[in-house]
User: Fold these one by one.
Assistant:
Number 1:
Amino acid sequence: MKKFIAWQIGPSLLIGALGLLLLIGLIGGGNQQTLRSETASGGSICSPSGDYDKDKIDEVLERAGAFKGKRAAFEHASAKHNVDPVLMIAISIHETAWGTSRALLEHNNPSGQMRGNQIIHFDSLEDGLEMTGQTLNNLWNERGLNTIEKLGSAYAPVGAGNDPTNLNIHWVPTIHKFIEELGGLSGGCEGESVEGDLITGADGFVVPMKNFTITSHYGPRWGAFHRGIDLAAPEGEPIYAAKDGIVTRSEYHFSWGNYVTITHEGGATTLYAHNQRNVATVGQKVKQGELIAYMGNTGHSTGPHLHLELCLDNSLAQDRLVDPYPVFFGNK
Ligand SMILES: [Zn+2]
């Protein structure tokens, strides 16, 4: 009987603990940790180039308890799980009351991850960040909760039964403030474009990278069929939308690695594969020249490059593919 009661009240105790954690977070994030940058708009800023401000991040982490000096650990976990490092840092700071919560100090658990009614114990901060990355990837990329507001509705729902004092109402504005303080997200700037800097091809397409070497052409290759063209560059080179369109895929594939597809007006679809990290999310409207991913070496790839395909429709069927070269570079 005792056990049964314990099981029954377990979740509400936990919820209380989470609330307390949030409360501590708010107090901890209050006076002496006052954020210095408050923009008039109140919205989070973002980086159209996809960069993030490493100096600002280091500055913030310096006063974030156990996260001090841990930027590389955040970068590693966020790259692996295709989430914005700035987002991961902002949430981790909030959930751990500036790197001081017991969950973090005793369990290496930066985001309050629970199993049943137990806070999950990790052997290292790296392991804890790994799980945080997985969770954020699931919410942001797979479930499409790809704004702070949408994420907050799942992470800290306002009016939830487990939030009697309405602390969750602070989650979204607090995360926004932290993101600002950290120098802004590394992507998600709607309408920003570097279109003018990109090589113009035919049919309104531009070459989706600024710096590259063509290393492989479309057609039969090594007894197989190469479905696109390969553009090599050092890892991390930004990849831009070749034309306005809607992002129809942004996910991992065993062969393409992290890849994005954009379906353009009329149905033609471009595919960008082997990315280090995807920035664009499914359903997002992108403008030509807008950052969509960083070039990488994921999936079946023998070196950093962009594998670029052009399909007449969104099927990606081999008999609907066309040689991208004449479209992007003309019949030279
Ligand atoms: Zn290729």
Number 2:
Amino acid sequence: MLYNFDEVIDRRDTGSVKWHYSDETIPLWVADMDFKAATPILNAIEQVTQHGILGYTKPTEALYDAIIGWHGSRYDLSLEKQNILFSPGVVPSLALMMNVFTEVGDAVLVNDPIYAPFMTKVEQNGRTLVTSALKEVEGQYRLDLVDIEAKIAQHEVKLYLLCNPHNPGGRVWTTEELEAVLTLCKKYNVTIVSDEIHQDLTLSGHIFTPLLTLATGYEHHVVSLTSMTKTFNIAGIKGSLIFAKDNELLKKISQQQHLNDEYELNLFAYAAMRSAYEQGGAWLAQALAYIEANIDVTVRFLEEHLPDIKVMRPEASYLIWLDCSAYAEDDKVLYDTLRAAKIELNAGISYGEEGHLKMRLNVACPTALLLEGLKRIDTALSDVSKNP
Ligand SMILES: Cc1ncc(COP(=O)(O)O)c(C=O)c1O
């Protein structure tokens, strides 16, 4: 079946976080796509309501098979049922991991820039946030392994929250980079939690490697988090997965989940997850092709109209990291300038100090809407001069 990603669907007045405005703002910010979900997923949800009984529900064997099948065939990640736990979301899992692996006051390492909840959950849970800035090399982020080791040693880091693929930079860490990180963590006995929620949005020419496939011999210190919600644009459904290979570790995580009874999903999430992993591949392939075309459109537009914006082309995801430092000196002024032109992007500074004068642009929307948004960015920034 062919999907029409050009269709503009009105999301105003639906409670949408992305489209909350009362004016004509174009929202190209939060990581949520303006595309209708895959038909098999919508059908699966409809089947649940048609059945009509919405009682307590647990994951079925067919759901476990779907999860195992998807990750095995796409990423060579071999999972068994006992390696899989359910969680209401990846961010809740990040908070959970803090409580499984660390005590109040312990140091937790994250990269900078990083998806903001990596930082806020560490701080809100009373842990000490330690950051390691990513290095930009030839327009792409690299992990600074020397700095990571120094920070681990200096702060006696207990837990490293890694984001692979990286949000906001869109980098898909290579096998070599991941192995180097594992080597460092082994040396200092650091647990790694890898947030892999953007795994399925890896773009052509790049290969996503699940950290667990490299963790042989270190399984008791490695956990990965993922979800079908980002991949299939069903974030409102809520639901995610926790994978680990070590039984003791799984027991510890499961016990922590049971403290607050947060180990199960609602029946719509189970149904959506199963159909996504069983039948969502065709939608995903088409969505990714559309996203790649939108990335090309954006890169060309910016080269032509705002050549001083430095574009970090994503290796995964539909989020583009833009260095706007040629057009502003102050983060708030930059954000407000764009807002005044009725366009919303995420302010880079909310992803850490390395996000200074950067903006994150979401291109997962109909191309016509994207082009209108790009025109507004052009109008807003081309009037701005650093030296008035
Ligand atoms: C890296 C990363 N982790 C987690 C999330 C959110 O996960 P959830 O909605 O399952 O809490 C996002 C959403 O954008 C994300 O980019």
